Amino acid sequence: MRSFLGVLFLWAMAWFSLQAGGEEIIISGGPALRFYERGKQNSHDVYWGNFIDSATARMSQIRPAMQPDDHLTWLIFRPAYERRAREEKLNLINIIEVKAQALGISLIWFNTRDELISYFNKRDASLPITRLEYFGHSNRRCWMFDYSNRLDGSCVEAFVLHQDNFSKISRKAFSPSAYCRSWGCHSGEEYSAYWQTTIGIPMVGAIGKTDYSRGGLPFLSTLGGRWTE
């Protein structure tokens, strides 16, 4: 009888874990300033909203498939949009918040890499991260939230999530079946493999460059480019 009850308890716990919701996280990095990029042959972020519109397009795809207990959260790097707002002479913070409100999405601003990592790690075990997708500048070794926004063609160290920072991220924050994807340039060349080795979950990334200039989701712009884990 005890054996039967034990099996029944384990079955019930397994069923509950399958029914419990998770958190689906979309991250938007920040745009470059036109002050630094204007006049370059390959100029970044002519439009300030590259990583905003692509994120909202993706969230519109994701939401219909979400379960009732799932949570969708939009994390956005605030300082870069504040700086671009001054350049554009537009209240970009308000524009973005209105977009999130219209979509019914929970919006959380972050200011540094450490704030982002803390958000990953400080969570109830009953709400693991089941999706993590990033829209923004990147190279083969890091996500760059502040690329060409404070420094021409570069990024402040505190505003980069480098592969060397993965050891600070708790594996327990993620569901073992979580879907992770970087929509930035070159992530599939090294970043994705290092993520899987450290966090234990595959990450889809690009071999080559991605281009956001057509609106919506970015496309591969390198000849022979591809998506890989």
A few lines on this structure:
This protein has 7 helices and 12 strands. By secondary structure, it is of the alpha/beta class.
Question: What can you see in these coordinates?
Answer:
By secondary structure, the chain is α/β, with parallel strands linked by helices. Helices cover 33% and strands 24% of the residues. It is built from seven helices and twelve strands. The chain has helices at residues 2-19, 34-37, 50-62, 78-88, 92-103, 113-121, 191-199, and strands at residues 23-28, 71-77, 106-110, 129-135, 137-138, 142-144, 160-162, 174-182, 203-207, 210-211, 219-220, 226-228. The strands form three sheets. It has a seven-stranded mixed β-sheet, sandwiched between helices. Strands 5-6-7 form a three-stranded antiparallel β-sheet, with no helix packed on it. Strands 10-11 form a two-stranded antiparallel ribbon. The longest helix has 18 residues, at 2-19. It is globular, with a radius of gyration of 19 Å. The N and C termini lie far apart (47 Å).
* CATH T-level fold name: Rossmann fold
Oligomer: single chain
- Let me know the number of strands: 12
- Distance from first to last alpha carbon: 47 Å
**What's the number of domains?**
1
Order of helices and strands: HEHHEHHEHEEEEEHEEEE
Poorly predicted residue ranges: 2-19
